[in-house]
Amino acid sequence: MSSVFAKVLKVHQWVYENSGGWVGHRVLFGNPTLLLRTVGRKTGQARTSALTYGRDGADYLVTASNGGSPRPPGWLANVKAKPECEIQIGRRKVPVVARPTYPDDSDYARRFAIVDKVNKGRYSAYQKMTKRPIPVVVLTPAGQSR
């Protein structure tokens, strides 16, 4: 990921957080964006990541693409260690349970297609840049049956 794009993402996330969600839900390329709040698995500190998402029924879908990097984003290890986390969509905060899915999951291809379409094919391009399978993380609102 270019350093300019990384800086744009950081500014976007800062605006989203500091506006209380008033600004940021659809700023970046017009894509719907949520804030994923996790707890650092090593530090125990609160972490926030702005991520493009898709919807699959009641579930929210995000990808652990890390811009096609060979390494997954840090937030993926955090949700694996502690799946109970929170998302913010606009001004609304929702407790969720995160579940990474991979190509061996029967719903993976369908879910990947949903988030790839929302992100205008960028995830397919990212997948071509890395050998690791890019997980689709399913964020299910707490209390919803699975």
From TrEMBL:
GO molecular function terms listed in the Swiss-Prot or TrEMBL record: coenzyme F420 binding; oxidoreductase activity
Top-level taxon of origin: Bacteria
InterPro entries attached to this UniProt entry: F420H2_quin_Rdtase, Split_barrel_FMN-bd
Regions crossing the membrane: none
Reaction(s) the record says it catalyses: oxidized coenzyme F420-(gamma-L-Glu)(n) + a quinol + H(+) = reduced coenzyme F420-(gamma-L-Glu)(n) + a quinone
GO cellular component, one term: plasma membrane
Family: Belongs to the F420H(2)-dependent quinone reductase family.
Protein name: F420H(2)-dependent quinone reductase
Lineage: Bacteria, Bacillati, Actinomycetota, Actinomycetes, Mycobacteriales
